[in-house]
Structures are given as structure tokens and as C-alpha cells.
TrEMBL record:
PANTHER family, per database record: GH17672P, PTHR48021
This protein's name: (African queen) hypothetical protein
Keyword Ligase in record: no
Transmembrane segments: 105-127, 142-161, 170-193, 205-229, 241-262, 274-292
């Protein structure tokens, strides 16, 4: 059975990512969440077929691709095209000199690094400690349990939102929701840290409401889509190189914000810390709204054209449209 962890909880079934996946037991048994594969989810299955092909598990790759391709001839041609593309040598120096690649790289770093500059990694790692520091009547254990279920609920919602809304739209509203949540935490600690102040009324529930907003909006938007959007920004030959740089920046900033969150809070104080994170939400949201092109429903070539490339080589494979 799938091992699933959401928040501080561990259960028998888990959604690792808010991606359009089928939830089944490992032996293939359907669960209440199982459903037929939709056309938009085909690209995720195709990715699985490619991964199997890379590992030279050709039979498994054919089995996976047969779920979304019409004939064996198309499958064999697609795998052959993919093998051919792997023989192309990528000149990294030429890529760094390419203005379109640099623009894709800048946008990828914006999305990946921005997802960790807004502070969610820090507050998720220190969730229990933050709730204990609020000194409200809401038990930290109960609050952590609620946050865990919110993460799972957000993962389920993402599947439907990506079907009806564009990537950029989801990212923008996700960051605006994060801004409200972080700002709420800043307001709470501004009042609660005053000497002799008694936490009562709405302020008693403001921390958990703010954390719910942060958790839901991060996991329903940028937390899920950052890897998808980043991969779509690069063309075939540059994707591995650019994607690795973006992912490295994301992990590095996640480490920094988590490692030094306590020192940052002690130096600036809790209110200023959360207001800084809320300000970063607005900065990243504004940059995404202004500079990031919409990638849903476009081929990789069309995305590259929107980034300024004039002439593009055709990518291998009969289907390039990232519609999931």
C-alpha cells in the first residue's frame, strides 16, 4: 500500500503531490478515489513511460504509453524519437549565452526560489513550536492535526483547479492567499507580545486561521505547480540543465529559511518576521503576474516563442502539449 504522510500525520494512503494521479493500492486494487484517466492527465502517464524508457525498461514503457496512445506504431515511434533526443550533446556554454534560455532560467528561479522565500518551509517545519508560542486556548496538537488535513484537502483541490484555470492564475491567487495568512500571523504577534495583553475573542483563533490560509494556498498553488511550470519553461535540449539549476536554488533557499528561521525570529521579532514573509509573497506574486507567460495548453515551442525565441527546432515525439 502507498505510504502517505501529510503534515504531521501518517496514514495508509497519501498524496505526495497534488498532481492528477490515480489512487490505487500497490496491487492494483481500486480505492474510492480511483477514476478513469482523463486526456489532460495523459502527459503525466507519458512522463512515466519516458522514465521507464530511460531506465531501459522498454516493456514497462510500452505498457504505460499504451494507456494514452492509439497504436503500437505511435508508441514505438515515440520511444525511438526519445532515444534519439538523448544522443544530442548539450553545450552548456552556448546555453548560457542564449538570451531565451537565460530568460527561462530567470523565471524558473523566480518560481522555485520564490516558493521558499515566502516562508512556508520554515513555518511547516516549526509548526508545533509556533502554535505553542501563541499561548492560545487552541491545543497545539489539535491545530497540527487540522493543518495536516488541510494539506490533504488542498492536494485534492489542485487536480480540479488545474483543469479549469491557468498556471499563472493559480500561482497569483495562491501567493495572495499566502500573503493574507502571513500578515495575519504578523498582526497576532504584534498584539500578543505586548506586556500584559490578554489573548481573547477572535485573536485567540487568528493563528490557526492564518496557518490554515498559508497551508491551503501554498499546497493548492505554488507548492504543487512550481516543478511543473519550471519544466515547461525550457525546451527539450535545455530542460535538464535549466531544471537542475532551478531545483538547486529551491532546495538551497528551503534549507536557509528552515535552518535560520529561529535566529531570524529572535533577531527581528515574530511580527517583523511574518511581515517580511508577507512582503515576499507580494513581491513574488507581482513578478509572476508581470513576467511569467501562461504555459497551460501550449506546446513547448509556443512557450519558447512567448519567451522571445524566433526560430525553434521541432522537439521529438508526436505530442508536446503540456495540458495537465
Amino acid at each position: 500500500m502507498f505510504s502517505v504522510n501529510f503534515g504531521s500525520l501518517t496514514t495508509g494512503i497519501s498524496l505526495f503531490w497534488a498532481s492528477p494521479m490515480l489512487v490505487k493500492l500497490r496491487n492494483g486494487t481500486d480505492t474510492p478515489l480511483s477514476r478513469p484517466i482523463t486526456e489532460e492527465e495523459g502527459s503525466w502517464i507519458v512522463s512515466g513511460g519516458y522514465l521507464a524508457a530511460v531506465a531501459s525498461r522498454i516493456d514497462e514503457a510500452i505498457d504505460v504509453l499504451s494507456k494514452v496512445r492509439e497504436s503500437d506504431e505511435i508508441i514505438k515511434q515515440e520511444l525511438e524519437d526519445y532515444r534519439s533526443s538523448k544522443q544530442i550533446k548539450v553545450n552548456k556554454i552556448e546555453l548560457i549565452r542564449d538570451r531565451t534560455f537565460l530568460k527561462s532560467l530567470s523565471l524558473g528561479v523566480l518560481v522555485c526560489a520564490g516558493a521558499n522565500m515566502i516562508g512556508y518551509s520554515a513555518i511547516s517545519f516549526y509548526l508545533q513550536t509556533i502554535f505553542e508560542s501563541t499561548n492560545t486556548s487552541v491545543a497545539p496538537e489539535i491545530a497540527s492535526l487540522v493543518i495536516g488535513f488541510i494539506q490533504l484537502f488542498a492536494a485534492l483541490c489542485t487536480t480540479f483547479f488545474t483543469k479549469f484555470f491557468g498556471r499563472r492564475t493559480i500561482l497569483i491567487y495562491s501567493l495572495l492567499g499566502m500573503f493574507v495568512g502571513m500578515f495575519g500571523l504578523g498582526i497576532f504577534f504584534t498584539f500578543s507580545t505586548k506586556e500584559g495583553y490578554v489573548i481573547t475573542g477572535f485573536l485567540n483563533y487568528l493563528p490557526i486561521i492564518s496557518m490554515i490560509l498559508c497551508t491551503y494556498n501554498f499546497n493548492v498553488g505554488i507548492g504543487c505547480l512550481l516543478l511543473v511550470v519550471t519544466a515547461e519553461l525550457f525546451d527539450g535540449t535545455a530542460r535538464a540543465f535549466g531544471y537542475s539549476i532551478c531545483l538547486t536554488s529551491s532546495l538551497f533557499l528551503a534549507f536557509l529559511t528552515s535552518k535560520y528561521f529561529v535566529e531570524f525570529t529572535l533577531a527581528l521579532g515574530p511580527p517583523a518576521t511574518y511581515w517580511f514573509f508577507s512582503a515576499m509573497c507580494l513581491v513574488v506574486c507581482t513578478l509572476i503576474a508581470v513576467f511569467l507567460p501562461e504555459t497551460k495548453g501550449k506546446t513547448f515551442n509556443e512557450i519558447q516563442v512567448s519567451l522571445g525565441r524566433q526560430r525553434l527546432e521541432n522537439e521529438p515525439g508526436p505530442s508536446q502539449r503540456p495540458e495537465c
